[in-house]
Amino acid sequence: MKPFDPTISSADYLALARDRHRGTSRLNEELAWMLDDETYDCGLNKEHVAILIDPPNWSAAVRDENRKARVYLQAQINQKGNAQISWARGELDILYDEDFLKRYVDAARSADSVPWRGLGELMWWRGYELLLGDVILHKSPAATALLYAHAASLNELASYLAQHVNVVGAMTVNFTYQDDEVTSADFAPTVPSDQLQEMIRERGRRTTARLREAVERMVVPKFDPE
Fold it and tell me: What's the pTM?
């Protein structure tokens, strides 16, 4: 199968995967449900996306300044081998929480703020590591097309968000190949390493400054010896 083409949509890759699945390259049952479900859209949570881009959930400062809330789209694989794509939780911990209402940020950072999934999670790829195994070890054409569909959907999500919020960075699936066969597929940031490190440091500085301001606002009771 040809290398991943970012100009091909996730819908087209899903259609290709279903075509391969109906042929000789059938997926195992733990993955086949994605192709058997005609409504499957790579784990996209449209409701959570809609909440994120809705200005009433942004802070008063952002709205008063007539700008868009800043978002870094993070992705990681959890201990169960599922991939989680979120704007509020991740290993990098790049979060502009001051751009959103506090109650929304608190709910978004919780793993189970709403039934089943956290409010900050925008996509969830069940069985991602299992899918990778089918692609890399078994070289399944159907699995490869399905993996490409997920990679395309992540790019599409970042592009869609950029129309509504200030996407300061995101993650993408980076493929490596040998003889046109996928040998690895890892999440990689879309921003240069030095810029990413500065964003992480800047996040730490903002957090420290807010904590200092909170301490300074605390009212210390005066000691009355009587």
Answer: 0.87
